[in-house]
Amino acid sequence: MECLLHIGTDKTGTTSIQEFLHLNRQRLARRGILFTRSCGEINNHFLAVAAYDSVQRDDLTANLSLRTNHDIEVYQQLLQARLHRELREAGVPRVVFSSEHLQSRLKAARQIERLRRFLTQAGIRKTKVTVYLRDPADLAYSLHSTSIKGGHPGTGPCRPDSDDGTGYDPAYFRNVCDHRATIERWGNVFGMENIIPRLFRRDQFIQGDLLSDFIATAQLPALPYDFPKAHNEALDHLGLELMRRFNACVPAFVDGAPNPLRGQVWSLFEKHFTTGERQPQSPEIRQAYEDAFGEGNEWVRQRYFPNLPALFETRHVSTVNHNTLPPGRWLDQCAAMVAELWLEVRKNDLQARQGEPAAPQTLPFVLGRVRKTVGSMLRKVGVLPKSSAA
To answer: Which residues of 29-44 are buried (b: 16+ CB within 10 A; e: fewer)?
Structure first.
């Protein structure tokens, strides 16, 4: 059996690729291509846990309630058995795996080697690895936005060489942004000839479309596919700053376990805070990423994309301060109000699920009012013209 291992990276349309594979699972199966369920229904992130060191702890192990070394070792054995059974029952010649957690969480050669053995023991004999590469500075800002939606209270993307007070681990950013290191790390285990890097650039996508590019890269058959709707929208600058403050009030995890009072609050922020200006990039941070990864990017370009003048397009970032946010204390007050209302709604919702009477859920309406209130503040201090909509 052969497999294609799509390993990310983060913020390169991985959710769209996974939704596409999920929507077309039966079509692909009829053509002899399996998109597994045992490793995760949509995102095959359980496959990353299969290669974890037994001492590794993160949000994936927390969500799986894997608290001890023994828990992880037992889970890995059970997942091995489930995948082997799924592959045997499917009886197809090809399998596709997709998870950005493979690249972001498996940072050591021993873990990737453990994954290779895991796949071999499941019956896979040949593996190709594909990875999408994005401009490091753009990737860092996008990672910050997604982290905020996931509950992180960080103040902004960190430099690749220091956390500079942002609350992030710079090692995580360096790992995701160091494309040469990624290719060499995975190539040393699966063979450099089996690594297929692609650029996360619209002008480099086949037919100018990510999913068309993935279909061609994965050598999927020409079929009348279903395609996912656009989703996972980035928050605008105002939404990021409000949600960052909200996260300090309602954390994603409590005592190492998912906070039941948080719920899917990110979807409400996406609904109300995606139409404004995006967070401006700092010229200093962009230059720091270019300095840190410029040499490695040139290595990738020469080896895989020699016809391009540069691996990524040149970006010119303005040094003019275009801050359109109200004073921080106002944002603090708005975020505290949203958090208080959200906690009330969530508690009522959880009570209703347990059969207890609950109050009506009015948070979507309240968030809309919050956005209007903040817009009014912006006009009041002269940041927005008085005729501008909130």
So the answer is: eeeebbbbebbbebbb
